[in-house]
Amino acid sequence: MEYITLSNSVKMPQLGYGVFQVTQEECERCVLDALKVGYRAIDTAQSYFNEAQVGAAIEKSGIERKDIFLTTKVWIEHYGYNAAKASILDSMKKLRTDYLDLCLLHQPYADYYGAWRALEELYEEGKIRAIGVSNFYPDRLVDICSFARIKPMVNQVEVHPFYQQTEAKKWMEKYGVQIEAWAPFGEGRGDMFQNSVLNEIGAKYGKSAAQVILRWHLQRGVVVIPKSTHIERMQENLNVFDFTLPEEDMASIAALDTKTSAFFSHDDPAMVEWFVNMVEERKKN
């Protein structure tokens, strides 16, 4: 495993296992499989509704808590100081842990400054080892880095060969924020796994397109959290530390950048309204 060191000197595995869209029925088994094959970083979130299953799997795995890097994220409806702090403590109960290795604010909307103060306080109390944000575009990131008491240590954003976030990555580096990729494969959109450039590169090293993508991320200094519900694919995704992409291969992949999200834009007003409506609907349930 390769590690990166965050701005506060905390070491974080550069390759972890993400449980976005892993159902409650499958989650415990999947996390146990991931830990069995060698993953030591697990990424979940309040909005995934599977924190309890992640916690149960970690407890059943028999692996010492100190050897697992555990991340969760605060959802928008829990923003504001009091609500965020209560929700984080509740997440820790679900995860069966008395501390988090990393806690992120999941979206750049609503009272994220109030929520950030809760993260700062829990960080200073030692209940969270590192704090950060997710989906913060450069303007929002520079804002919170400039005006918050403690700067975010991580920003988890959409990054993959078709949306490489080169400019955003420069701003993160300027402020000492580690870039982390959600959807490191772009969920296969745009026929990514069938892309001829990625497959031709993979053929040279006896690797799949997915393995080439993960190696490309790692060499760019990006933290990745690929998701799979199949243990064989988990093993394949972990088997990316025995080869290196030379500069010409990295350049070929760089040329695939469309500079366009494969999903949605967080600064699109219609998308902001979509998030608002989601929060309102959840309040009714």
Write a structural description.
The protein is an alpha/beta fold and 285 residues long. It has helices at residues 24-37, 51-61, 81-94, 112-124, 138-147, 166-174, 196-205, 209-219, 231-238, 247-254, 269-284, and strands at 3-5, 11-13, 17-18, 41-43, 69-74, 102-105, 131-134, 154-158, 178-182, 223-224. An eight-stranded parallel sheet has the order 3-4-5-6-7-8-9-10. Strands 1-2 form a two-stranded antiparallel sheet. β5 (69-74), α3 and β6 form a beta-alpha-beta unit. The chain starts with a strand and ends with a helix. The model has no long low-confidence stretch (mean pLDDT 96).
Number of helices: 11
The assembly state of the depicted protein chains is single chain
Output mean pLDDT: 96
Question: How many structurally independent domains?
Answer: 1
Q: Quickly name the level 1 CATH class.
A: Alpha Beta
SS class: alpha/beta
Radius of gyration in whole Å, from Cα? 18 Å
Under CATH, the homologous superfamily reads: NADP-dependent oxidoreductase domain
CATH-derived topology: TIM Barrel
Strand order of the largest sheet: 3-4-5-6-7-8-9-10
Major β-sheet annotation: 8 strands, parallel
> Given the C-alpha coordinates, what overall shape results?
globular
Strand content of the residues, in percent? 5-15%
Helix content: 40-55%
Stretches where pLDDT is under 50 for at least 5 consecutive residues are none
